[in-house]
């Protein structure tokens, strides 16, 4: 929940989900109403007329929440980019200022192939690698660089790093 709140506008997400729930209710009501009308229809033409009316009303309800559906699609894309963190493994979080070698260390320890550049703020999301040491599998999380500022002044990328430190770290390696 904290990661969701740190990366997207949570109020908008709730509003969009509420609109979707409203639309679902409307579609269910239309379905019940038009099923009954079609069962009682006296002719095939009347059934086709009820079917067209049903599709028109459903289409209208969906069009009313078009912006909310777009918001939900954007949230889905953001959620899809979240890394799969295995909470059952001991987790070492690599943290520090931008451009201090966190990603290079992740690559050296795990053999992963993350993007490394000579300029700061290359890491824009949490990156995960795994290593085996004394028959124990460890999960290493490379966090985006953090600047020394209070959480309320952090950007979305920095808040992801802070959340990894707060919620999933078994150990922390802070690079300077």
What would your notes on this structure say?
With 176 residues, the protein is of the alpha/beta class. It is built from six helices and four strands, in the order H-H-H-H-E-H-E-E-H-E. The protein has helices at 2-7, 10-40, 44-64, 66-80, 102-110, 156-167; strands spanning 91-96, 127-133, 136-142, 171-175. It is elongated. The mean pLDDT is 85.
List the helices and strands and how they pair.
Blueprint: H1 2-7, H2 10-40, H3 44-64, H4 66-80, E1 91-96, H5 102-110, E2 127-133, E3 136-142, H6 156-167, E4 171-175
Parallel strand pairs: 1-3, 1-4
Antiparallel strand pairs: 2-3
Question: How big a fraction of the residues is strand?
Answer: 5-15%
Physical arrangement of strands within the biggest beta sheet: 2-3-1-4
- Computed Rg: 25 Å
> Structural class of the secondary structure composition?
alpha/beta
Shape: elongated
Percent helix range: 40-55%
* Rounded mean pLDDT score: 85
Low-confidence stretches at least 5 residues in length (pLDDT < 50)?
none
Compute the number of strand runs.
4
Keywords for this entry:
alpha/beta, 6 helices, 14% strand, four-stranded mixed beta sheet, 176 residues, 53% helix
């Amino acid at each position: 929940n904290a990661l969701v709140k740190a990366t997207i506008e949570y109020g908008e997400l709730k509003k969009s989900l509420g609109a979707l729930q409203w639309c679902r209710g409307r579609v269910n009501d239309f379905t019940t109403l038009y099923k009954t009308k079609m069962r009682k229809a006296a002719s095939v033409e009347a059934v086709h007329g009820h079917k067209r009316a049903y599709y028109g009303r459903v289409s209208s309800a969906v069009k009313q929440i078009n912006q909310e559906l777009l918001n939900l699609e954007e949230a889905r894309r953001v959620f899809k980019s979240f890394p799969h963190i295995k909470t059952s493994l001991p987790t070492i979080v690599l943290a520090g200022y931008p451009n201090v070698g966190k990603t290079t260390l992740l690559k050296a320890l795990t053999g992963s192939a993350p993007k490394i550049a000579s300029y700061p703020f290359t890491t824009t999301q949490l990156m995960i690698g795994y290593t085996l040491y004394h028959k124990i599998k460890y999960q290493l999380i490379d966090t985006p660089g953090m600047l020394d500022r209070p959480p309320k002044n952090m950007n979305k990328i920095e808040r992801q790093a802070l959340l990894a430190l707060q919620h999933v770290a078994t150990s922390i390696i802070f690079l300077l």
